Each structure stands twice: as structure tokens, then as C-alpha cells.
Amino acid sequence: MIDVTAASQHAFLNGRVTVNLSILFGELPLLERPAAAAAAGFTAAELWWPFGEDHTPSDAEQDALRKAFTDAGVRLTGLNFLDDLTKGARGTLSVPAESERFRENIPVAVALAESLGTGALNALYGNRVEGVPAAEQDELALENLVLAAQAAHAIGAVLLIETLNKAESPDYALVTAEAAIAVVDRVNAATGLGNAKFLCDLYHLARNGEDLAAVIATHADKIGHVQIADTPARNEPGTGELDFEDLFARLAAAGYTGRVGLEYRPANGVSADSFEWLPREYRA
User: Fold this and answer.
1) Cα(284)–Cα(27) distance, rounded to whole angstroms?
2) In whole angstroms, what is the distance from residue 192 CA to residue 194 CA?
3) pLDDT score recorded for residue 6
4) How far is Cα 90 from Cα 82, in angstroms, rounded to an integer?
5) What pairing do the DSSP bridges indicate for beta strands 158-162 and 120-122?
6) Which of 23, 35, 99, 168 falls between 20 and 30 A from 128, CA-CA?
7) What angle, rounded to 10 degrees, do the helices at 4-13 and 244-253 form?
8) Rounded to whole angstroms, how far apart are CA atoms 274 and 284?
């Protein structure tokens, strides 16, 4: 007997799944992860900034990463600008002390993205800084996001702006969908390019207690990418509280045709064992 619900869910995902190799296959060295993803049946992947705090990695480091993807036959579909996640930060673009590093990172990240056919660049906004007025940080953020949007546009890419959840990122400036959408609108108004989009991470929004159905219905035209993990433990679909069949149906009905990033931690710690919910024929 065919599980119609599962079949419908898989039909929505077919051809649009991209696996985040900064969190999945994290038990392997970075350069081995594209091949591991390919062995699991995936042909598209995304990354947080893959060089830690180094905002301008050497040509050799970048070439090694490119080779890992091209040798595996995996396309890098999404890439973060400098995010400083490895030292507990949540982006650098709104932080005065890190702004110059972000600006120096823009051409590096964009060139790497262009060389791998990457069509989306995610710019994490940054944490609030004690002693710096929020308005000052927001003004700096807009300046830097305009530069990032212009650079992304030059290679035909979109600029993504993301909401994170307050429980895990209490100092992050954008912890509601509305806040991120407002930034998207300001960037597009400033550039006139229209390539700033909302990164709709269903896990973060759910952890914030948002009405996911309402977010999809209200902002579908501004969603540039979707990422998923189940709540509350950020594991694979089917391990928590989210009804992905319903959410995917709502995204489809709203006209979303973009990619869906798998950005979860495997429940048992072994990434290759965490994809049973998605048959292999739907992963490529």
C-alpha cells in the first residue's frame, strides 16, 4: 500500500533538495563531505562560511574546496558570507569591529560562489553589540548588505537574509520573520535590484513560536530559500513536532519553486543513517 502522504511530500522535494555540509556529515573532514553526500545520492549542497575566522582564505584552500565539489559531482547551491560561527558569532555585517572583514570577504565569497555555480549567498546579520546603539548597527548593516547584494547580482545570485531563533541566538538582531522581511525590503529599496530574499528556515521560525502557515502565506513572494530541521532537537524530519507534509503543501500552494536545504543534525550522530525519511530517488 502506498503512503500517499509520504509520496506527496517526496514529490514536492524531488529535484530541489540541497544538503548543508556544515552540519550534515560533520563527523567527516570538510573536504570529504561532498563525496559522502554524493554517495548518499545527493547532487547539491550548501555551506556556512567554510573557512572559520579566515575571511580571505588562500587560493590553495579555495582550490581544494572547489576540487572536492567538482570531483564529487556535487553543485554548491548556497554559501554564507563570513559568519564567524566558529567563534560563537552570528554574522559580522552589523558589527562595527568586524565590518571591514565582512567587506573584504564579499569579493572572495562571491568569486568562490561564481566558480561553483552557486546561486544564493546568505548574509547572517550579526549580534547586537553592547554599547552600540541598535540604529547605528542597522545603518551599518544596510550599507554592507547593499554592497553584498550588488556583488551577488553581478554573478546572477540572490542575497539571503535569515531569521534565527532567540533561544540559541539570544543576541541576534533578527528573531522574527517580520524583522528579516523588513531588512529584505530595505535592501531592495536601496539597490533597486530586487535580489534580496528571505531565507525561510522553518526550524528557527518554529523555535521562535511563529505561525509557519501564516509566514508562508504572507511572505511566499519574498522567500528565496527554505531550510528544514525538526523541532525541538534540530534532527531529521519525523523526529519532532513539525508536520512537514502540511508545510510542503503550503509552500507548493503558495508557488514556492526554490530549493529546500536539509540543515539538521542526525539524531543518532551518523549522517548517512539520517536520510531514511527521503528515498534515494528523490535526493538528486
Assistant:
1) 22
2) 6
3) 67
4) 9
5) parallel
6) 23
7) 50
8) 16
Sign of CA dihedral 117, 188, 164, 13: negative
Please state the length of the chain. Answer: 284
pLDDT digits (tens, 9 = 90+) for 174-212: 999 999 999 999 999 999 999 999 999 999 999 999 999
Listing DSSP states for 104-160 in one string gives HHHHHHHHHHHHTT--EEE--B-B--TTS-HHHHHHHHHHHHHHHHHHHHHTT-EEE
Give the residue numbers marked as catalytic. 162, 263
- The x, y and z cell numbers of residue 142, run together, are 544596510
Tell me what the pLDDT averaged over the chain comes to: 96
Task: Give the C-alpha separation, 190 to 125, whole Å.
Answer: 17
Average pLDDT over residues 131-145: 98
* Residue 8 DSSP class: H
Give the pLDDT band of residue 278 (cuts 50, 70, 90): very high
Cβ-based neighbours of 76, under 8 Å, separated by 6 or more = 44, 45, 46, 47, 69, 113, 116, 117, 118
State residue 89's pLDDT score: 96
| Chain Cα centroid distance, residue 71 | 23
Could you tell me the three cell numbers for 22?
Answer: 556544515
Contact between residue 87 and residue 53 where contact means Cβ atoms under 8 Å apart: yes
Q: Which residues pair with 162 in a beta bridge?
A: 199
**What are 125's strand-pairing partners?**
91
Residue with cell 514556492: 256
pLDDT band at 149 (very low <50, low <70, confident <90, very high): very high
Q: Cα–Cα distances in Å, from 25 out to 19, 61, 273? A: 9, 20, 10
- What is the grid cell recorded at 174? 533578527
91 strand-pairing partners: 125
CB 128 within 8 A of CB 171: yes
- Helical (H) or strand (E) element with 63: helix 59-72
User: Strand 260-262 vs strand 17-20: parallel, antiparallel, or unpaired?
Assistant: parallel
The pTM of this model reads: 0.95
